[in-house]
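Record type: ASSEMBLY
Status: queued
Input:
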Amino acid sequence: MEVVDIRPLLAPVLSFACAGLVFLMGRSFFWRCFWSVGAAATKLVVVMSMLPGTLKGTVYVFKLLDFTPGIGLGFRADALGMFFAVVSSTLWLITTIYAIGYMKTEHSQVRFFGFFALCVSATVGIAFAENLLTLFLFYETLTICTYPLVIHEETPEAMKAGRKYLTYTLLGGAFVLLGSVMTYDMAGTLTLSKPGILSMSSGVTSLTWLFVALVIGFGVKAAIMPLHGWLPSAMVAPTPVSALLHAVAVVKAGAFGLLRVFYNVFGVGVLRELPVVNWLAYLAVFTILAGSFVAIFQDNFKRRLAYSTISQLSYIVLGATMLTPFGATAAIAHIANQAFAKITMFFVAGAVQRTTGKTQIHELAGIGYRMPWTMAAYTVAALSFIGLPLTAGFVSKWYLSLGALEAGKWWLALVMIASSLLNAAYWLPVVYLAYFKAAPGTRLRIQEAEPMLLWPTLICAAYVIMLGLTTQVPGLPFSLAQAAVRFVFGM
Amino acid sequence: MPASALLVGVIIIPLVGAVLTPVVGGRSGRAAGPWALAVMLVTSAIALMLIVHVANVGPFSAYLGGWEPPYGIELRFDEFSASTSVICLLGTLSILFSFKYAEKELPPERIRYYYTLLLLNLTGMIGFVVTGDIFNLFVFMEILSLSGYALVAVSGERTAEMAAFKYLIMGAVSSLMVLFAIGLLYALTGSLNMADISVRLAGAEKAPAMLAIAAFTVGFMVKAALFPLHIWLPDAHAIAPSPVSAILSGLVVKTGLLGMIRIYQIYYGAKVLDLSALNTVLVWLGAISIVMGAFFAIFQEDIKMMLAYSTISNVGYIIMGLGLASQYGVIGAAVHIFNHALIKATLFLGAGAIIYRTGYRNLTDLRGIGRSMPLTTAAISIGAISIVGMPPTAGFLCKWYIALGAVEAGQPLFAVALVFGALFIFVYYIRMVNTFYFQEPVHPEILEVEEAPLSMLFPVLILAALCLIMGILGRIPLSFVEPAVTRLLAPLGG
Amino acid sequence: MIALLWINLDYAASVVLFCIGLYCVVTKNNLIKKFIGLNIMETAVFAFIVALGVVEGGDAPIMGADANAPFTNPIPQALILTGIVVAVSTTALALSLIIRIYQHCGTIEADELREME
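Status: finished
Output:
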């Protein structure tokens, strides 16, 4: 049931307005924090207020205006979009609080918080986009707004990373634009409100080209190998940005875009006819394994996180390429599961860096005694990545394996197991270092991160466990993912 | 007032205004600026009425001296003539911008002539887009070209004069090409009225008709600075005073393109030749222009030089859209003529404001200017985002439409060239934005600079806002030119 | 072929003139000579257009008691009058620019000017 409602528009617009206020009034610490948190909170409230309706099957739509003749700037909150919006709004509030604590001593804070707010507004815009053009609009806005965050340090290294980031993502954006143009030419519409707008009558060749264009376009942000190069270098950004980039906004925008392409542009029926989808699956498998493998050899904490992200994101891609209900469930649910676990990890990395100044993994010996709470959160997240039952990661892996069997590709289940082992191989040594090896020559005393850094970390860790324990996490219902899957597969 | 009287007035008023400027301005030239502004405001008001009229009733004509065509001179206002609006808008804003600029940069005795030339140039352009007579077109083209050459040289500096001379030689040769082609058309049809020529050309001999369109194309492409014929542009546009650069880059270059549209109107209607070979050449040249313009721009240190090369890229977009000869492509091209004018004027005026305050024009010297001139640089950044074609700005719509046109015409490779050419353009605009905001200043005094004066800031901000508004409300110009493009392309489909 | 050329001798002549002019504009080093080339081109085009209006044995198209047909076509002549006005102003502008360049640089040779930049 579709209901015209302004809230899908309000969610991005209100937070855009707050971002503007951050720019205007941001010189004072109080107002900067006020509007940053205000933007996050209003957005969360707006999004959450739609949740009960969405769960009952209502779809909120709002058509703003015709952007070009025939293609409107439209917003639409369906189950898939809501799922992404809920995840990103929740995490944004938490990250904003963390960022206020983290950035206290940094320069150019107005710019930082302003663009930070813009980024996440754009993310909600992506979530609620009614058509491919609106999606593209916010996708590019996100690219542009992240750039000042990546180069925040303004060091030559940061500038170089920024250039690399822009090169990759803008190329991706160009592919998305090209894909949108081709889609419009083939389908005559760009709407994302149907389970697929293309039909086989366009011919396998052109559909394959279109698929390749769109997958490259969104795959850059989703860091499918070999399009992942920007992600590790973008690690020079301040930690809250890395968290935002790598857990919530940017990479998930790519993954979400891919899901939209799969389920709303092509539709499952058409994709089953395209052999190229299998190649994407192989690429995803390669990325999962190779990403983890490279991560083992990274000593820099954040770089290890980056490669882990690359590997984890391909779970989503893999789940989507299975084209089965369980696979789709896994792909959608993993957006949340990976986000919470990864952001916990980043918060830990940031807290450790701010508290002790350490950025390399070999320096972390004995850190478990100095920062017990922080490292407890880390352990929870690590276990989730390995896929231990009772954590969020398990849910994803379980459904992915089910989906693999459903699709008749049992060997994909083996890939899951291999990936778990690889994850264990690079996350557990840190736990070992932290708890079982005392730092040489220093007397250990508890020196926990400050509350502004600690509490967001703990909350995220708690979410990781909740997501693993129950399908009814407050504000993050698994049933949204299931509703999306039912829509996609016409069940 | 009847529409035909307004149509005459829209040319006569700025023309008379221009002639009177040296008298009104007096020796000090102090009154010349406000006078020119007033003249342009009146002209803008008339242009607005004309556009409302054309939106309501469609194209209409006025006959000078009551002589009906094909004997008399016809003024014809159609949807393409609606570019008068952007001419008036940019003219008004540039004149406003010139107040402080002229005071500082020009010798006082030249100020009144500067405004005279500006008004003449604008008159030439308005006349060029509203005339329905092909020789009249040439005369107006010469008015705007001659005043353009003089405007480039107006500062009286050595480099400016040399650039103006280069511009003059190229421009005069191209004008002769156009005149030669007009002569050929007259020989073929015995008429100078465009609509009449189109009818009579139908049965004409093919070879001279082909020679004529070739001469037209070369002539107008020099004016439009399409790639191999662009060599006059960078110097002239970069060295001219900034408000003049805005007009040259935003408008004068476009007259070449509008002229091309007029020629297409004649030839498509006459169906005397199959133009697909010409179109193919234009599409390729357009694609090459996009890439080469961007390529040269990357190596420029001078901010205005960079903007000048970017004009070449954007002309490439428009030519590509025209050459595609598909509905979406031509609509995109026609609207980009309008949108690019807004965007490029934002950039040139913004750059002018910065140069006015700092005296520097190299990117390296301007590092850190974003901190001391936040509004101007913000406007330039919006312009930069827009010219690269990021949504939701004005530049995006055109890119979208021309790309769609390429796919529609069954030539998706040009869509690829367009989309990735735009990325190339991004490279140097990113460099510019980096310079403004994210790099440590080379000259510490740059942080002490004041924000631009209000008479400069206002035009820049208005234009930047328009870049955004025209993106969001883009369907208005798009649906406005759509009937004209449908009429233009109708003979092709039939 | 030759016959065709002979019939269209006036057109052929203007084309040749045009090419001579263009050659001067492109190759000459001296700015004045460059500009003379441009003037030759102008003349070529004017001659071409005026020649269009010629009617064999035609009279000047002046109305009056003793006017008798056929007349030559007056329109090209009118056009070229306008064209000449334009050409004169172009010339004036170009010459004044050349004078200014000479005052500033002491030379009007294109290659020497290029070296000064």
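Annotation: The interface with chain C takes residues 135, 139, 142, 146, 149-150, 153, 156, 158-159, 161-162, 164-165, 168-169, 172-173, 175-176, 179-180, 183, 186-187, 192 of chain B (CB under 8 Å).
Annotation: DSSP finds 19 helices and two strands in chain B.
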